[in-house]
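Good morning C.,

I know you're traveling, so I'll keep this short. The sequence:
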Amino acid sequence: MAQYLELDGVFLALADPTRRAVIHRLGRGPASVGELAGEATMTLPSFMKHVRMLESTGLIHTAKSGRVRTCELNRERFAVVENWLAQQRRLWEERTDRLERFVIASTEDPT
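The tokens, ready to paste straight into the viewer:
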């Protein structure tokens, strides 16, 4: 059950276009909150809510040096999504394989 709570949190974080844009930008490398906020069309306090959400789900790490807070993508955290997708892929492949076997058997047995 805990793995699903983790997954829910990650999907919730990724459900928002602003947070997806931050993730996309951080895919190119670390950036300051100021840089990231400059690309968003909202106030800094509102933008910080998005940063906190991403950080609370473990998708990003932040570090403060002086007055600058830098964000970095936590690529390892995406394993939660990758594992879930792999499970879903296996499940659907098994189902389509069974359906294929059923269809082939139905066409070969004309009773």
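Safe travels,
E.
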